[in-house]
C-alpha cells in the first residue's frame, strides 16, 4: 500500500533543472519528432496518476507503475526506452553490478552499461552478452602513486564521453571501498551532477556519500537507497541521533530535507520514500527470503522508472499537476512495487531456494501482470 504523510510534493522548484538537462533535451526532441508518446496514451497515463488518491492505498503503487511505464511503439528506436549505466564492480564484487544492470534491461531499458575495474570486466561480460562493459576503473594496488592523477583524468575523460547519453546512473553496486577508486567515483558523481543526470546511490556508493554529503546534497535528481545499517549511518551522520522507528516518517522527512531535498528510499518491511516534502510507504508483500542482491535489483529498477517518470513529465509540456510530481519519488514507488511483486512470485515458485536470479527472472512477468503490453 502507499501511505502519504505531510505536504504534497511541489515539482515547480525542479523545473529549471529538468529543462536544462542535455539528456532531457534529447528526449524532448525524440518525443516530438518520432511521436514516442501518443496523445491518447499520454492522457490515459496522466489520468492514472491523478487517480492515485482514495482508500485503496495498495492500488496506488500499481497505478503509478502503470502510469509511468511507456507503451511499446514500433516508431521508437533503440535507446528511447532508457539508457542506464552502473558504476561499480571490482575484484571482490562482480555480481552486484550485474544484478543492477541486467534488472534494468529485464524491466525494459534498451541499453545497460557497466563501468568497472579491469579485473571485474571479463567476469561481468561472461555473465551476459547483453551488457556493455567498460573496464576503465582502477584500484590502488594496480596504480603507482605518481600515476594516480594521470589515470584519474583518463578515467573521467572516458566516462564523460558517455555521460550525456545516459538517462540515469547507478553508483555503488559492487564498488568496494578502495580509496583511489572512491576518489575517482567522487569525481564521476560531480560530473553527473553538472550534466543533470539522475543518480541512484546504493551499496558502497552510500558509504562514499555518507562521508562526503556534498556530493549529493541539494541535488534533487539524486536517490539514496539505504538498507537498515546504511540508513543508521546516514541518520547518525546527518541528524546526530539514532534511528527512531516510532516516528519513522517524520525522521525520514527531516533527513531528506537536511540533505537538501534528495530522495531517500529506506528499505525495510515497508519501503519508506521521501524527498523532504512528502513521505510515501510501499507495503506490498514481497518475500520472507532475504537473499543477497535484492537491493541491486532495486537500484537498477529505480534507475529505469526514474527515467520513465521524467519522460512522462517532459511529455506533459508543463501540465503535470498530479501528486506526487517528483520523478524520483514516482520512480522509487514503482520500483519498490515491482520488486516486491517479483520477489513474491519467485518465492512462490522456489520457496527457501529463492535466489536473486530467480527474482530477476520474475521481473518481466510481474510487470506484465500490472501493466500488460497492448
Automatic annotation (TrEMBL):
<feature type="binding site">
    <location>
        <begin position="267"/>
        <end position="271"/>
    </location>
    <ligand>
        <name>ATP</name>
    </ligand>
</feature>
<feature type="domain" description="YjeF C-terminal">
    <location>
        <begin position="61"/>
        <end position="370"/>
    </location>
</feature>
<comment type="similarity">
    <text>Belongs to the NnrD/CARKD family.</text>
</comment>
<feature type="binding site">
    <location>
        <begin position="286"/>
        <end position="295"/>
    </location>
    <ligand>
        <name>ATP</name>
    </ligand>
</feature>
<keyword id="KW-0067">ATP-binding</keyword>
<dbReference type="GO" id="GO:0046496">
    <property type="term" value="P:nicotinamide nucleotide metabolic process"/>
</dbReference>
<comment type="function">
    <text>Catalyzes the dehydration of the S-form of NAD(P)HX at the expense of ATP, which is converted to ADP. Together with NAD(P)HX epimerase, which catalyzes the epimerization of the S- and R-forms, the enzyme allows the repair of both epimers of NAD(P)HX, a damaged form of NAD(P)H that is a result of enzymatic or heat-dependent hydration.</text>
</comment>
<dbReference type="GO" id="GO:0047453">
    <property type="term" value="F:ATP-dependent NAD(P)H-hydrate dehydratase activity"/>
</dbReference>
<keyword id="KW-0521">NADP</keyword>
<protein>
    <recommendedName>
        <fullName>ATP-dependent (S)-NAD(P)H-hydrate dehydratase</fullName>
        <ecNumber>4.2.1.93</ecNumber>
    </recommendedName>
</protein>
<feature type="binding site">
    <location>
        <position position="174"/>
    </location>
    <ligand>
        <name>(6S)-NADPHX</name>
    </ligand>
</feature>
<dbReference type="Pfam" id="PF01256">
    <property type="entry name" value="Carb_kinase"/>
</dbReference>
<dbReference type="GO" id="GO:0110051">
    <property type="term" value="P:metabolite repair"/>
</dbReference>
<keyword id="KW-0456">Lyase</keyword>
<keyword id="KW-0597">Phosphoprotein</keyword>
<keyword id="KW-0520">NAD</keyword>
<dbReference type="GO" id="GO:0005524">
    <property type="term" value="F:ATP binding"/>
</dbReference>
<dbReference type="InterPro" id="IPR000631">
    <property type="entry name" value="CARKD"/>
</dbReference>
<feature type="binding site">
    <location>
        <begin position="227"/>
        <end position="233"/>
    </location>
    <ligand>
        <name>(6S)-NADPHX</name>
    </ligand>
</feature>
<feature type="binding site">
    <location>
        <position position="296"/>
    </location>
    <ligand>
        <name>(6S)-NADPHX</name>
    </ligand>
</feature>
<dbReference type="InterPro" id="IPR029056">
    <property type="entry name" value="Ribokinase-like"/>
</dbReference>
<keyword id="KW-0547">Nucleotide-binding</keyword>
Amino acid at each position: 500500500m502507499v501511505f502519504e504523510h505531510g505536504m504534497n510534493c511541489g515539482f515547480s522548484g525542479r523545473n529549471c533543472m529538468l529543462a536544462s538537462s542535455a539528456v532531457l533535451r534529447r528526449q524532448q526532441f525524440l518525443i516530438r519528432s518520432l511521436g514516442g508518446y501518443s496523445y491518447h496514451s499520454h492522457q490515459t497515463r496522466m489520468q492514472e496518476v491523478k487517480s492515485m488518491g482514495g482508500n485503496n492505498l495498495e492500488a496506488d503503487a500499481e497505478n503509478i507503475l502503470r502510469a509511468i511505464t511507456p507503451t511499446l511503439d514500433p516508431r521508437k528506436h533503440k535507446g528511447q526506452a532508457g539508457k542506464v549505466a552502473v558504476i561499480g564492480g571490482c575484484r571482490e564484487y562482480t555480481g552486484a553490478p550485474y544484478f543492477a544492470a541486467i534488472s534494468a534491461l529485464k524491466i525494459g531499458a534498451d541499453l545497460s552499461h557497466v563501468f568497472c575495474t579491469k579485473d571485474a570486466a571479463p567476469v561481468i561480460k561472461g555473465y551476459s552478452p547483453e551488457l556493455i562493459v567498460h573496464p576503465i576503473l582502477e584500484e590502488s594496488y594496480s596504480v603507482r602513486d605518481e600515476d594516480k592523477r594521470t589515470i584519474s583524468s583518463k578515467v573521467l575523460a572516458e566516462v564523460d564521453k558517455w555521460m550525456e547519453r545516459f538517462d540515469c546512473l547507478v553508483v555503488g553496486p559492487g564498488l568496494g571501498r578502495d580509496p583511489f577508486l572512491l576518489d575517482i567515483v567522487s569525481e564521476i558523481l560531480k560530473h553527473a551532477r553538472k550534466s543533470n543526470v539522475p543518480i541512484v546511490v546504493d551499496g558502497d556508493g552510500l558509504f562514499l556519500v555518507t562521508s562526503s554529503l556534498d556530493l549529493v546534497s541539494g541535488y534533487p535528481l539524486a536517490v539514496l537507497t539505504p538498507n537498515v545499517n546504511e540508513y543508521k549511518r546516514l541518520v547518525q551522520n546527518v541528524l546526530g541521533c539514532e534511528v527512531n522507528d516510532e516516528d519513522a516518517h517524520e525522521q525520514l522527512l527531516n533527513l531528506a530535507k537536511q540533505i537538501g531535498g534528495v530522495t531517500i528510499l529506506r528499505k525495510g518491511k515497508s519501503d519508506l520514500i521521501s524527498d523532504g516534502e512528502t513521505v510515501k510507504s510501499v507495503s506490498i508483500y514481497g518475500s520472507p527470503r532475504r537473499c543477497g542482491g535484492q537491493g541491486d535489483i532495486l537500484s537498477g529498477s529505480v534507475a529505469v522508472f526514474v527515467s520513465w517518470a521524467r519522460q512522462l513529465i517532459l511529455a506533459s509540456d508543463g501540465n503535470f499537476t498530479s501528486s506526487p510530481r517528483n520523478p524520483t519519488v514516482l520512480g522509487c514507488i514503482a520500483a519498490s512495487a515491482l520488486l516486491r511483486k517479483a520477489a513474491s512470485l519467485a518465492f512462490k515458485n522456489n520457496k527457501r531456494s529463492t535466489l536473486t536470479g530467480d527474482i530477476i527472472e520474475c521481473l518481466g512477468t510481474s510487470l506484465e501482470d500490472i501493466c500488460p503490453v497492448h
